[in-house]
């Protein structure tokens, strides 16, 4: 699921640091690893590669990530096959470091995900693994799950194999470095071919009715007068093309799982009509033209993340991905009942295809299990018992982690927006009412007053609004609101509509 990428300037105010610490404690974002789990990770990091693996250190893999990233899950190489392309995707082999049922494994199930905040991230795995022995850092021999996917000249998958291998990345590229090389014509052939495959796969995605969100990075920076502004980093084409390689692999993984009759899919139902309607009102608030006869999927290619209003819309569009979940199948049902079957169509609607998480095992627990199922199916052997034993509970584990991560992200947005608007209390802003509560509750301090959400164009903020006594909020209409209060500690921004 796309998420907002928020950043605070390096020197964050003390109240922000305190608010984020309190938030992590409230939600239960774990700060420390138990001593036995940490010791297990350190021992695993010192181990060697004793199991049988293909030696694929001959492949010129590279990683492509945001600047400063050290938890490198994926390394890629693309070659021409003469009538299409061979996409080789090396994924960090976390199973080489984690013993099923051990102390570290238990802690990973407790965490479920890496939690990303505007000031720092809380990793799923101890950094001795996630930023060290398990990460596909350059010029290091690393264990990997190697996906080899053939695609034809139109970008359609023709075959997929998965095996364990030893790989050695040649370079750790940032998105900016990769894009600059492509634009200058100095990129290696593999990177040029990656761009070709990315374009083809994006075209196939649009044909399937899928959508990709180019969510820009946002950073809150301090002005000379002590106030704050929101700066946006536009996304680059290479980010979309690189993401398409990950999506290609996830779709191939789902195909292998369906063949095996056992697996775990990432699913997403169609967006709720209320969410789509609210997003249309958000577009109006931001001055984005969205004709009634144009679908959401048709609108997205027209947007440019370098434009502030478009970037704000793309951030708000992440709300359409609510309801994403996991479906485990081919395993005993509740209380050991009949095996859970797989529906004829279990698509992820935003991708427009069946899809499984397998490409980010350093940051998501479920990917380690998905990879093992695909390795077994590709080799024609049984899925390991430790994987089958964990599958029934895995959707619940991941849903709980996703719920906490979503709550954390939304609260972080509230904190960041309180910082951004903190010096502007009492000022008036043009906005559009994009949502209203079902009733007229406005909190204990404002009983009987209608409450909803407004979207500002400048700065691009969506926040709570309360109306005048006894008056309804004019849903979808342009209004002039007053910033009544902000609180970093309470994670609150509130506007009033006279």
Structure description:
The protein folds into two domains: 5-269 and 323-420, no CATH class; 421-496, Nucleic acid-binding proteins (OB fold (Dihydrolipoamide Acetyltransferase, E2P)), CATH 2.40.50.140. It is built from 13 helices and 19 strands. The chain has helices at residues 14-27, 35-45, 103-111, 127-133, 175-184, 189-208, 237-260, 273-285, 296-299, 308-317, 366-379, 385-390, 394-421; strands at residues 5-8, 54-55, 62-65, 74-80, 84-92, 115-116, 121-122, 141-152, 157-168, 171-174, 217-222, 228-233, 263-267, 325-329, 428-436, 449-456, 462-469, 478-487, 492-496. The strands form six sheets. Strands 2-9-8-5-4 form a five-stranded mixed β-sheet. The chain has a five-stranded mixed β-barrel with strand order 15-16-17-19-18. Helix 1 (14-27) runs antiparallel to helix 13, helix 2 crosses helix 3 (103-111) and helix 2 (35-45) packs parallel to helix 4. The longest helix has 28 residues, at 394-421. Mean pLDDT is 88; it is low at 439-444.
């Amino acid at each position: 699921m796309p998420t907002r990428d928020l950043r605070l300037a390096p020197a964050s105010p003390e109240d922000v640091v305190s608010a984020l610490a309190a938030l992590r404690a409230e939600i239960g974002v774990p700060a420390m690893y138990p001593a036995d789990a940490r010791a297990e990770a350190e021992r695993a990091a010192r181990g060697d590669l004793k199991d049988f693996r293909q030696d694929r250190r001959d492949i010129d893999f590279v990683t492509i990530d945001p600047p400063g990233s050290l938890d490198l899950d994926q390394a890629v190489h693309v070659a021409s096959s003469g009538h299409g392309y061979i996409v080789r995707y090396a994924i960090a082999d976390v199973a080489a470091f984690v013993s099923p049922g051990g102390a570290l494994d238990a802690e990973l199930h407790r965490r479920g995900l890496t939690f990303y905040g505007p000031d720092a991230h809380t990793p799923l795995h101890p950094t001795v693994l996630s930023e060290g022995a398990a990460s596909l850092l350059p010029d290091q021999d690393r264990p990997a799950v190697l996906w080899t996917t053939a695609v034809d000249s139109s970008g359609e998958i023709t075959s997929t194999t998965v095996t364990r291998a030893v790989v050695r990345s040649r370079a750790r590229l940032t998105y900016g470095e990769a894009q600059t090389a492509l634009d200058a014509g100095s990129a290696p052939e593999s990177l040029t071919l990656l761009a070709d495959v990315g374009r083809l796969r994006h075209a196939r995605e649009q044909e399937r009715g899928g959508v990709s969100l180019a969510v820009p990075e946002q950073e809150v920076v301090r002005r000379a007068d002590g106030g704050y502004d929101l700066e946006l980093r536009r996304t680059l084409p290479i980010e979309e093309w690189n993401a398409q390689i990950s999506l290609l692999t996830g779709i191939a993984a789902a195909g292998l799982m369906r063949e095996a009759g056992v697996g775990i899919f990432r699913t997403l139902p169609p967006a709720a009509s209320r969410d789509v309607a609210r997003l249309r009102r958000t577009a109006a608030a931001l001055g984005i033209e969205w004709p009634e006869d144009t679908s959401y999927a048709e609108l997205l290619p027209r947007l440019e993340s370098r434009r502030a209003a478009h970037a704000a819309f793309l951030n708000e569009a992440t709300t359409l991905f609510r309801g994403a979940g996991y479906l485990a199948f081919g395993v005993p049902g509740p209380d050991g009942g009949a095996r859970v079957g797989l529906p004829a169509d279990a698509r992820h609607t935003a991708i427009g295809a069946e899809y499984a998480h397998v490409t980010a095992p350093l940051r998501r627990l479920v990917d380690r299990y998905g990879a093992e199922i695909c390795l077994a199916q590709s080799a024609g052997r049984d899925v390991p018992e430790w994987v089958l034993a964990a599958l029934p509970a895995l959707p619940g584990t991941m849903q709980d982690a996703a719920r906490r991560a979503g709550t954390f992200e939304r609260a972080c947005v509230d904190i960041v927006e309180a910082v951004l608007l903190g010096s502007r209390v009492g000022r008036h802003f043009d906005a559009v009412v994009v949502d209203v509560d079902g009733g007229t509750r406005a909190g204990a301090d404002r009983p009987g007053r209608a409450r909803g959400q407004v979207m500002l164009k400048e700065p691009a903020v969506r926040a709570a609004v309360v109306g005048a006594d006894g008056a309804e909020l004019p849903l979808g209409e342009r209004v002039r609101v007053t910033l009544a209060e902000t609180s970093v500690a309470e994670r609150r921004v509130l506007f009033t509509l006279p």
